[in-house]
Write a structure and sequence with these properties.
Residues 4-127 form the Gfo/Idh/MocA-like oxidoreductase N-terminal domain. 33% of the residues lie in helices and 23% in strands. By secondary structure, it is α/β, with parallel strands linked by helices. It binds nicotinamide-adenine-dinucleotide (NAD). Nicotinamide-adenine-dinucleotide binds at residues 9-14, 36, 76-79, 99-100, 126, 128, 169, 175, 183.
C-alpha cells in the first residue's frame, strides 16, 4: 500500500518540488496538507484532490493522530520550526521526514530524535542527494578509494539573494538559525562527509565581508570554512548569499572528480580523471520520498536518518563557533 504523506508548510519547496514529485511516487502519495493560510488550503484541495478531513492548520494539527490516511508528516517549514513540528508529528505517532537543516540547535535536534524514539516512529532528513546517481558515484569514489586515498575536497554552494528578500525568514536569525551556511553550506558539509564516509574531527571558519548590510543584519552574507578529517584530509568550503557557486570536488592519489553544477535540482554535470560522468538527471525528490517510504514500510531506518541530521547540526554549530571566535580550531564532539 502507498503511504500517505502530509506536507507541513506550503512554501516554495513544497509547491514547486515536493507536490509535483508526489504525483510520480510509487510508494507514497500526497494525502494531506498542513497550512496556516486558508486560501492555500482551497487551492491545493482543488489542484490535488485532497479531502477536507486531511487538511489541517497549525492549531488543529495534533488531531492528525486520528487520521489513518496519514502515515508520514513531511516538515517543510522555516528551519527553527522543524523541531516543534517534528515533535508534534512524532507524538501523533506519524513517521517524519524533516527538511534540512534538521534544527537550529544541537539540543533541538536531540529532542527531535528522542521524541521519535519514544513514540516508535522513524525520522528521516530531506537529504535528496543521497538518492542521486552523481552523488552516489562520489560516495563510491571516495569511500571505496577507487582512485586511492582521498587527498583533498573542495565544495562551494551559494546563490545571489534578490534585494526583495529583506523580509524573508532566511535573513531572520530567529527563524533560520543562520545564513547561507544553514541553507546552502550544509550541502558542502554533507558532500565532504559522504566523500569521506565519516564526520570531520575539527573545523575552522571565517565570516566573509558584508557588502549588503541592509540585507545581512542578522545572518552572515558569506562564510568559508575547513573541515579536518581523521587522516589529515581537509575539505575547503565556501557558502554565500552573494553569488552563485555550486561545486563538489575531490582529489585522490590516482585521480580526481568534479561535480558542477553539483547541488541544484537540475543540470548536474560531473567529470572524473577518467572522463565524463554519464548519468541521467533524475527527479531526486521522487526517488528520495519513495526510498524513505519504502524503508518506513519495512520498519527500517532511512539511509538519511535523524542521527545524520544531528551529526550535521553539530558540525554547523562548530563552524559558527569557530567563525565567531575568529577562526579558532573547534573539535567536533
Ligand atoms: P518558503 O519561505 O518558500 O516556505 C516556507 C513556508 O512556511 C511558507 O509556506 C510559509 O507560509 C510557512 N510558514 C509558517 N510559519 C512561518 C513563519 N513564522 N515564517 C515564515 N514562513 C512560515 O521556504 P522553502 O524554500 O519552502 O523552505 C522550507 C524548508 O525547506 C527550509 O527548511 C529549507 O531549508 C528547506 N528546503 C530544502 C530544499 C532541498 O533541496 N532539500 C530546497 C528548498 C528548501
Amino acid at each position: 500500500r502507498k503511504l500517505g504523506i502530509a506536507l507541513v508548510g506550503l512554501g516554495g519547496y513544497s509547491t514547486n518540488q515536493l507536490a509535483p514529485a508526489l504525483q510520480e511516487t510509487k510508494n507514497c502519495y500526497l494525502a494531506g496538507i498542513v497550512t496556516g493560510t486558508p486560501s492555500k488550503a482551497e487551492a491545493w484541495k482543488a489542484k490535488y484532490n485532497i479531502p477536507d478531513k486531511n487538511i489541517y492548520n497549525y492549531q488543529n494539527f495534533d488531531q492528525i493522530i486520528d487520521n489513518k490516511d496519514i502515515d508520514i508528516v513531511y516538515v517543510v517549514l522555516p528551519n527553527a520550526m522543524h523541531a516543534e513540528y517534528t515533535i508534534r508529528a512524532a507524538k501523533a505517532k506519524k513517521h517524519v521526514i524533516c527538511e534540512k537543516p534538521m534544527a537550529t540547535s544541537v539540543e533541538d535536534a536531540q529532542r527531535m530524535l528522542e521524541a521519535c524514539r519514544e513514540n516508535n516512529v522513524h525520522l528521516a532528513i530531506g537529504y535528496r542527494l543521497h538518492y542521486d546517481p552523481f552523488h552516489q558515484r562520489v560516495m563510491e569514489l571516495g569511500q571505496n578509494q577507487v582512485f586511492g586515498k582521498v587527498q583533498s575536497i573542495k565544495s562551494h554552494n551559494g546563490f545571489a539573494m534578490g534585494s526583495g528578500s529583506s523580509n524573508s525568514w532566511r535573513v531572520d536569525r530567529e527563524r533560520s538559525g543562520g545564513g547561507p551556511l544553514m541553507d546552502m553550506g550544509i550541502y558542502c558539509v554533507q558532500g565532504a562527509c559522504y566523500t569521506m564516509g565519516k564526520a570531520p574531527v575539527a573545523v575552522t571558519a571565517k565570516f566573509g565581508e558584508v557588502t549588503r548590510p541592509e540585507l545581512f543584519k542578522e545572518v552572515e552574507q558569506s562564510i568559508s570554512w575547513q573541515m579536518e578529517f581523521e587522516n589529515g584530509v581537509i575539505a575547503n568550503c565556501h557558502s554565500s548569499y552573494a553569488q552563485r557557486e555550486d561545486l563538489l570536488e575531490g582529489t585522490a592519489e590516482k585521480g580526481w572528480w568534479r561535480l558542477g553544477p553539483a547541488f541544484g535540482y537540475e543540470g548536474k554535470q560531473g567529470q572524473t580523471s577518467q572522463g565524463k560522468m554519464d548519468y541521467p538527471n533524475i527527479f531526486e525528490q521522487v526517488k528520495q520520498m519513495d526510498g524513505q517510504a519504502e524503508s518506513f514500510r519495512n520498519g527500517q531506518p532511512s539511509i538519511v536518518p535523524g542521527e545524520m541530521g544531528l551529526r550535521d547540526v553539530k558540525i554547523l554549530m562548530a563552524i559558527y563557533e569557530s567563525a565567531r571566535a575568529g577562526g579558532k580550531r573547534v573539535e567536533i564532539s
